[in-house]
Amino acid sequence: MSTKEKIEEDVLLAEKTEKHNEIILYNDDVNTFDHVIDTLIYACDHTPEQAEQCSIIVHYKGQCTVKTGSFEELKPRCTMLLEAGLSAEIS
């Protein structure tokens, strides 16, 4: 087995075992589209287009995954969403 093959196997194994969590944003009747968009740009590093699309999905579908990653990475972002008055959770 060559070194290159061994490295590729290690990378593939690491990708399969890493668990990704999601921040799910929920719809509410309180926050405006502008507030949700601005908060997603700030808290989740979305582009304005991404934030607008997520806000539309949340409005019509009731929820939307707005960020994925490790729990440690998502926790402060979810906290920012909650502190801004949005309804969100990590799953």
Q: How would you describe the overall organization of this protein?
A:
The chain is α+β, with helices and mostly antiparallel strands. The chain has one domain (19-90): Ribosomal Protein L30, Chain: A. The chain is built from four helices and three strands. The protein has helices at residues 3-17, 33-44, 48-61, 71-83, and strands spanning 21-26, 63-69, 87-90. The radius of gyration is 17 Å and the shape is elongated. The termini are far apart.
CATH architecture identity: 2-Layer Sandwich
Helix content: 55-70%
Quickly count the helices: 4
| Biggest β-sheet strands, sense, barrel | 3 strands, antiparallel
CATH uppermost class: Alpha Beta
Taking all Cα atoms into account, the compactness measure Rg is: 17 Å
Our measurement of the CA-to-CA distance between the termini, rounded to an integer number of angstroms, reads: 39 Å
Helix/strand-derived class? alpha+beta
- Total domain count: 1
Strand order of the largest sheet: 2-1-3
